[in-house]
Write a structure and sequence with these properties.
This protein is mainly β. It folds into three domains: 153 residues, Rieske Iron-sulfur Protein, CATH 2.102.10; 98 residues, no CATH class; 180 residues. The protein is built from three helices and 34 strands. It comes from Pendulispora rubella.
């Protein structure tokens, strides 16, 4: 019990250390960003009825000029703000065979949101039917239209449209159930491939453009521990950081420092708006590669929570060994541990990602029916960040006290599946990790207990411990296999 009390006292210190080392360079506040944006007003030629084509406004902002079959005209900005990384938006592609804009949600040609992309998007392309895909109840019920610009038709020939003010997308209620990918409705035909065919600017060339201009710049975004977000061109060199003088991205937070020198890299090219000696409003392609790197090399973009809580219940049986014949005993109970990431090692490209070591306190209540015991101590586990392909191994050591007045030492050895669904959450990543996350799973275990009071005795039991929700819906091969990140 003394061990358990010591861990209770040490736990706040562990949390404070984790928090203290989790520092990052903050973005410039939005109200501090002041610049003269070039005028967007421009006269654009109209495509034929039933077609759409890409164009740019006076400040370099890309738009789709859309003319529907009903002759309605829209100027659609195909950018979508995304929750990760902070300050980074993505280009929403036009999917010709589906005749809609698609990325997490579905929009019609005029930028009006229709519903959830759901199981057809890139995050869920490997799920197997409804039983393995996200539940309908977990999908959003509200989404935003894409931004547009006001358009005024001009008289005369050729047919033209004058660009007006930008109109923010309206937030709308949408059905939770994903839109059927086989559903199509003839709308418009896109002319031109956007943005792949647009000319890219080198970083030096982009910096010569006037402040406020949107440019398509060839480079990688890099967020280093304890430094500002920057953009640089590194070619095939993935083992070194951007030079310190690389242009800064002023409205994006730097990478959180968590006790080691790490760097997040997002592959370009990007759209970005010129600001001071750098950029703001960076927009990535939807297929931009992402990684979090140690200075020596890349590893997976997944961030375990600062603390992960793993509750369990267990059933077991074994023998009590005392002077005389051994006696068969049951062992029932429950407990939990709270662990933090202690170290990672190994090759990032290996299946399942790096190996990770986790440490933390544990506690449990156990009964052999003739007595009840409380116990606790230190837990140690070895697994992998994304998917422990050989299972997660763990050792728990400590001591406890029983209702019969006896004290004991205990050692527990476990092997099995450890599943942390929060590690595959787009709302939280290396820039914004969770504080707490729930770990589920099921494991085989062997426990050894020994006591000298009131008489020397040892117990050896074997059994199964599990977190109950691991067996409950939604059923998933990924959950049962312990795949933390797909």
């Amino acid at each position: 019990m003394d061990t358990a009390r010591r861990w209770v006292a040490v736990l706040p210190f562990i949390v404070s250390c984790q928090t203290a080392t989790s520092t990052k360079v903050r973005a410039v506040p939005p109200d501090s960003i002041h610049m003269a944006v070039p005028p967007v007003s421009r006269v654009l030629p109209l495509p034929p009825r039933g077609e759409m084509r890409p164009d740019t406004l006076g400040d370099g902002t890309p738009v789709w000029v859309v003319r529907g079959l009903d002759d309605a005209v829209s100027l659609v900005v195909p950018f979508l703000a995304k929750p990760y990384p902070a300050g980074l938006a993505v280009v929403v592609p036009w999917v010709s065979d589906q005749e809609s804009f698609r990325h997490r949600f579905v929009w019609n040609a005029h930028g009006r949101v229709l519903g959830n992309e759901g199981w057809g998007d890139e995050r869920y392309q490997y799920c197997f039917g409804e039983s393995d895909c996200p539940s309908v109840a977990s999908l959003p019920t509200r989404a935003q239209d894409l931004d547009t610009y006001a358009a005024r038709r001009l008289e005369g020939s050729p047919e033209r449209v004058e660009v007006g003010e930008r109109i923010p997308g309206r937030l709308r209620d949408i059905p939770q159930r994903p839109i059927d990918r086989s559903h199509r409705r003839r709308s418009v035909v896109a002319q031109g491939l956007w943005p792949e065919e647009w000319p890219r600017l080198s970083i030096p060339a982009a910096l010569t453009r006037p402040e406020g201009t949107m440019v398509f710049v060839d480079g990688d975004v890099e967020l280093s521990s304890g430094d500002a977000a920057r953009i640089c061109w590194r070619g095939f060199d993935r083992d070194h950081l951007c030079p310190p003088a690389s242009p800064r991205i002023y409205d994006m937070d730097g990478l959180r420092s968590r006790g080691r020198q790490s760097v997040m890299r997002i592959r370009g090219p990007f759209y970005a708006r010129r600001f001071r000696d750098g950029f703001i409003q960076v927009v990535a392609r939807t297929n931009a590669g992402r990684s979090v790197d140690d200075v020596a090399g890349p590893h997976e973009l997944v961030a375990p929570a600062t603390l992960e809580l793993a509750p369990w219940i267990f059933v077991a049986g074994g023998a009590r060994m005392v002077d005389g014949p051994n006696r068969a005993i049951p062992s029932l109970g429950g407990g939990g541990d709270v662990t933090f990431g202690f170290a990672t090692f190994g090759r990032p490209e290996a299946y399942g990602g790096r190996f990770e070591i986790r440490l933390g306190p544990w506690g449990a209540m156990e009964t052999t029916l003739d007595r009840v015991r409380g116990e606790g101590g230190l837990a140690f586990s070895l697994g992998q960040v994304r998917h422990a392909r050989w299972g997660t191994f763990a050792v728990r050591a400590g001591g406890g006290h029983g209702s019969d007045g006896s004290s004991h030492l205990v050692g527990v050895f476990t092997w099995g599946v450890r599943y942390v669904p929060g590690r595959d959450d787009p709302e939280h990543d290396a820039l914004n990790p969770r504080t707490f996350a729930l770990a589920s799973g099921a494991r085989l275990f062997a426990a050894v207990r020994t006591t000298d009071e009131p008489a020397h005795a040892s117990e050896l039991v074997f059994g199964l411990e599990f977190e109950p929700t691991w067996f409950l819906p939604p059923y998933s091969l990924f959950k049962w296999g312990g795949v933390n990140q797909r």
